[in-house]
Amino acid sequence: MVSDGQGVLGASNVLAGRAKAALFVFFTILFGLFFTAATAQNYAFSRIVVEGNEHIEPATIVKFAGIAQGESVTAGALNDAVQRLNASGLFKSVDVVPSGGTLVIRVVENPTINTVSYEGNKRIKDEQLAGVIKSQSRRVYSTLQAEADAAAITEAYALAGRLAARVEPRIIERDGNRVDLVFEIREGRVTEIERLSFTGNRAYSDRRLRQVLETKQAGLLRNIIQRDTFIADRVEFDKQLLTDFYRSRGFIDFQVLSVSREFSQERDAFFLTFAVREGLSYKFGNVSTVSEYDGVDVEEYAKAVRLRSGLTYSPNLIDNNIDRLEAVALKQGVNFMAVVPRITRNEREQTLDVVFALTKGPRVFVERIDIEGNATTLDKVIRRQFKTVEGDPFNPREIREGAERIRALDFFETAEVDARQGTASDQVIVDVNVEEKPTGSLTFGASYSVSNGVGFNIGLSEANFLGRGQFVSLNLTAGTDNKNSSITFIEPAFLDRDLRFRFTGYYNTTENDNSDYSTQRIGFSPSIEFPISEFGRLELRYSISQDDLFDVDANSSTLLKNEEALGAQITSSLGYAYTYDTRIGGLDPNRSFRLRFGQDFAGVGGDIQSVTTNALASYQQKAFREEVTLRAELEGGAVVTTNGDSRLLDRFTGNGKIRGFEPNGIGPRDLTVANEDALGGNFFAVARFEAEFPLGLPEEYGITGGLFADVGSVWGLDDNLSGSIDDDLKLRSVIGVSIFWDTPLGPLRFNFSKALQKESYDKEQNFDLTVSTRF
Questions:
Q1: Who's near 565: CB < 8 A, 6+ residues apart?
Q2: Mean of the per-residue pLDDT values for the chain?
Q3: Taking a C-beta distance cutoff of 8 angstroms, is the pair 578, 536 a contact?
Q4: CATH code assigned at 432
Q5: Which of 62, 45, 41 is closest to 53 using CA atoms?
Q6: CA pair distance 379, 383, nearest whole angstrom
Q7: What strands, in cross-sheet order, belong to the sheet with 351-360?
Q8: How far is it, in rounded angstroms, from Cα 749 to Cα 741?
Q9: In this protein, which residues make up the domain named POTRA (predicted)?
Q10: Which range among 26-30, 164-168, 241-245, 685-689 shows the weakest confidence by mean pLDDT?
Q11: Can you spell out the DSSP letters for 620-631?
Q12: 316, 401, 554, 717: most buried, per Cβ within 10 A?
């Protein structure tokens, strides 16, 4: 039970608590009303004063603030003005102070940049870094911009494969409110690709797929090779390369599922793993052509299709045959035809049935072709890459192919071709935007071979002479026993047609080059080359030269002495050469065939009357899951004279034709004299066979092996000096092994050979090393 005293005390405590609560509520409401009134206060300034500015005009500062005289503004608007002034990047500090009817804006300007410099950079030059950043001398310094520039420099190093690069901006204060901006750079090591691997691949080995990628593993020459550095954009390009590789071999469902990038603990290397899903390889099944274009007979179009059942599917084959069908439409004058390939999958048989449907497309014309960005290259050089001209029906495929031809010129860093709506609904404007790059070069080179020793060359060339798309080059080569010089001019579109005009002039000498005589040749040859079929080209040429054999040794054959006595002889000839080559644009990426046949008819003036015939047939195929490359070549030639005996300078010596022998190492010889010089022959024939294969070494080393076998001969003379010269047809055969090394300094080839069949007087060469490089 509670006493009365305690009850009174408890009641008073309750009343006190209630009073305190009431007072708290009262003051809270009062403060809220006061704060609301304060924040809701409006200002109107009849005058705006700017203080503290040194270089920036007051009107500019007021404009950034965004407050006008006489305008009613709130306290929130004043705060927004402060934020806008700070965001301009022009000021260290900003203070906005209302003072009655006057608004005072006090600023402290950022300093002006005196100089921009870089410290610690060795791999990327100052000039390159200056093109990356936006901070410049005599501009206002901004901390935010300096940080952004540091990030841009870091990105530039990342693109160069140096992901560990660090960049810190630092300022050095100078008088007059100026600063020097210094970017301190720690470049770090190149982030290399230590390992490239694949998962999910069954049809092709890791080694074969590495050959497809642009990215390479780091190998022995990691300090020289640049493609072994990690670049994210290059990985994306590699994914597309893998996709194109598989789909061109029938794997229509191929996908790159992911690319895992594992960073090494040292942060200087990546381990890349491409996870792929190959799917099944499909072949072509039934191939047919149907016409849905009124008045078009499908028969001639069906004859133009070059697809047959059983071929491995490739998108390139589809595109190639669409081109053929569109060419037939162009020939017949059928406009606005669209060839639509309709593909039906047969999963059980793993075949794809293809129907080429001839349909009528929309009536759209090319209004004009606009070309921009070409400061040097003439418009016509770019325009002639399109078969379409203004006013022609619009063919999207032809525009894409024209874009590819522009890029293939190799005159431009970039070449973008797009089509947009013209001035009418049935008109299209084709925009071509290019960025030119240097096309001239001055090269110094060196070469070496066991037979000819060390040689040096210098070359000057321009691939886009005067912006006309013409090629001009001058080359000088000097070896131990020979000197060669030449000048070449090529007009790829003579008379603005698909005619390739070529002019070559040369002056070559030898001084006892693996022989006991010297030679001198000077001449020139103009020619015209043009296509006569999809893979066939015909060249028509004229050549005139003055050839001289001199300094014949006293112990040489009488045949050579007689030819020396003739002195310099002039050869004037007309000739032709037919070439059929499927290496570029062929239907099968793993198989190619090349055929060359040519004849030169001397006697169009000059001292020599003869017919010289040359022929070559070569075949190459990749086998064993494309791990091994097989090559076979058959080559032969014949010289037939009509006004006397052939000369050494007209005959075949076999140089470079049959491996395993020295230059001038085989062929007819006069065995009755001391030096037994090779005399050359009127005929030669050779068969060459070769296989190139991996040796199990890492692919990035660029080292492969090979086996080869050659069999052939050089024979036949118009005068064998009553039998004292052995000019009979006698076969030589050679087998050997090769080591190929594709180095950054140039391709090296080591040949080790053994002659199985030879003559006692032949000069065998069991080892040969060739290397050629340019700087």
A1: none
A2: 86
A3: yes
A4: 3.10.20.310
A5: 62
A6: 6
A7: 283-291, 351-360, 337-346
A8: 6
A9: 43-110, 111-188, 364-437
A10: 26-30
A11: EEEETTTTEEEE
A12: 717
